[in-house]
């Protein structure tokens, strides 16, 4: 049986995985569009890696079904897939371009072609000086970039990256974001897991939020953000007038500053009331909530705090 839906690179329906009787993934549904950049967001232990492993066919779900590039047997598509696992590692004595070629060969790319592409990719990614160096002579960030290039050297249709940003400094994180965008521009589907919301907010049109083995939200980033109403920050010269009726009744000024949730009627009636009522607008900003606020709203404060702690711990690891 195959999936008839050619629109999706990945489909998962109610997949469940238990370890020692405990559900690590507890009934997840996913539809990931071909050619999109899709982020899987959640703290450590939420079930991201287990989900990715099931999607890839490294482990099978106990219940439910998943389709990778239309197939219920993801391993059969492995030549079309690139996978960067959470556990990083390359053979230390291999030369960098050879390591890339070796990874390509595991996915069906002839070694000679892999070596040629490996050298070119390293040059294109600013690692030209390191082509002939052994992996052990590279910095951690360089070795991770080499592993990433090895993940895509066979030009896969689908790339799955487990926590690709962790272990990279800010410069290399920026390079990785550009690389991911470049792949998507070529029509490649990129799925990555992360506990850093900013990466997902910058890169993804669609995300899944994972918490305690479940997905409380999957869909467009903009839809997640629209779950919260915009916040108004207003400074007025006056403190009273007919315009006060446009401001929520429970909002009290701090000095001449007003902070409140934008009323459902929207921006225009508010502006009309302020101008016609001569409130004397000194400053006005209307902020749409970011993905971080939406994440806290959807996943809850405890999950958000755990994820921030994970991100801080990972950043400390990068600093050493
Ligand atoms: N092979 C395994 N055997 C037993 N328990 C496992 C196994 N793999 C994962 N788990 C458990 O399943 C839960 C989800 O783990 P998973 O690795 O999928 O989370 P994660 O969101 O990827 O977090 P991390 O980034 O820490 O890997 C955790 O409680 C973990 O300890």
Automatic annotation (TrEMBL):
Keyword NADP attributed: no
UniProt keyword list: ATP-binding, Nodulation, Nucleotide-binding, Transport
Gene3D superfamilies (alphabetical): P-loop containing nucleotide triphosphate hydrolases
InterPro entries: AAA+_ATPase (IPR003593), ABC_transporter-like_ATP-bd (IPR003439), ABC_transporter_ATP-binding (IPR050763), P-loop_NTPase (IPR027417)
Domain ABC transporter: 10-237
A GO molecular-function annotation: ATP binding
SUPFAM superfamilies per the UniProt record, alphabetical: P-loop containing nucleoside triphosphate hydrolases (SSF52540)
Assigned protein family: Belongs to the ABC transporter superfamily.
PANTHER family for this protein: ABC TRANSPORTER ATP-BINDING PROTEIN, ABC TRANSPORTER ATP-BINDING PROTEIN NATA
Name the record gives this protein: ATP-binding cassette domain-containing protein
